[in-house]
Amino acid sequence: MGGTFDPIHHGHLVAASEVAAKFGLDEVVFVPTGQPWQKSSKKVSEPEHRYLMTVIATASNPRFTVSRVDVDRPGPTYTIDTLRDLRRQRPDADLFFITGADALAQILSWKDIDELWSLAHFVGVTRPGHELDGMGRKDVSLLTVPAMAISSTDCRARVAAHNPVWYLVPDGVVQYIAKYGLYAAPPAEQTSSALTETDDPASTE
Ligand SMILES: Nc1ncnc2c1ncn2[C@@H]1O[C@H](COP(=O)(O)OP(=O)(O)OP(=O)(O)O)[C@@H](O)[C@H]1O
Ligand SMILES: O=C(O)c1ccc[n+]([C@@H]2O[C@H](COP(=O)([O-])O)[C@@H](O)[C@H]2O)c1
């Protein structure tokens, strides 16, 4: 399963677990992106932070592993390279690539899409707010998974607004975010809210 995982959340983990059970997979390899080129207009956390959060989130499941292939490859991340690298490392494996409905809807814009179909079987999973469409292709399976209305965007916004992300992401990931101060509001916003609190005459502190 490829993703930016900024941060990894329970929507990713439930989707992976459901696909593994349905297709009898021996292993689910989580592959955090290095440079997600279709998110280049957004600020994305350092690959090493995203990789480590993915390791923490998956550590307790013996079938879940994390690959560094995309994090270690320089340049924009393309799934064609991800699948070639995984194929080289596991020459005898049947590869399945797991995508949420939103990612699957964009797949025709991915690099070398015509060749991509031959490297893996694609599994599209449901995601609240997105239409699941396999485009009638035989090499795409569709799977309904328990609805988890969680997104990394929402998790980041919650942290920036000092709202909890407990139970949206694994406990270790909550602690990792706090330890490294990820997703904090920009300094200007922090300063102005700190000033507002201090200047508030009603404040009892
Ligand atoms: N709640 C969810 N349910 C099912 N699939 C999901 C869910 N969240 C993400 N996915 C899928 O997981 C893969 C990786 O997603 P990604 O890391 O971009 O997370 P995201 O929550 O979509 O992030 P962001 O909000 O930053 O765009 C994609 O294929 C995406 O469709
Ligand atoms: O290959 C591409 O051109 C391509 C374009 C956009 C996304 N992807 C892959 O789709 C997966 C989900 O991406 P994202 O950005 O939604 O986290 C991840 O593995 C990306 O590398 C791949």
Give a verbal description of the structure.
By secondary structure, this protein is of the alpha/beta class. 41% of the residues lie in helices and 12% in strands. The strands form 2 sheets. The chain has a 3-stranded parallel beta sheet. Strands 4-5-6 form a 3-stranded parallel beta sheet. Helix 2 packs antiparallel against helix 8 and helix 4 packs parallel to helix 6. The radius of gyration is 19 Å and the shape is globular. The termini are far apart. The relative contact order is 0.16. The C terminus is likely disordered. The structure holds adenosine-5'-triphosphate (ATP) and nicotinate mononucleotide (NCN). The site of adenosine-5'-triphosphate (ATP) has 18 residues, from helix 1, strand 4, helix 5 and helix 7. The site of adenosine-5'-triphosphate has 18 residues, from helix 1, strand 4, helix 5 and helix 7.
Brief synopsis:
This protein has helices spanning 10-23, 47-58, 69-72, 79-89, 101-105, 113-119, 152-160, 171-180, 187-199; strands spanning 2-3, 28-32, 64-66, 96-100, 121-125, 140-143.
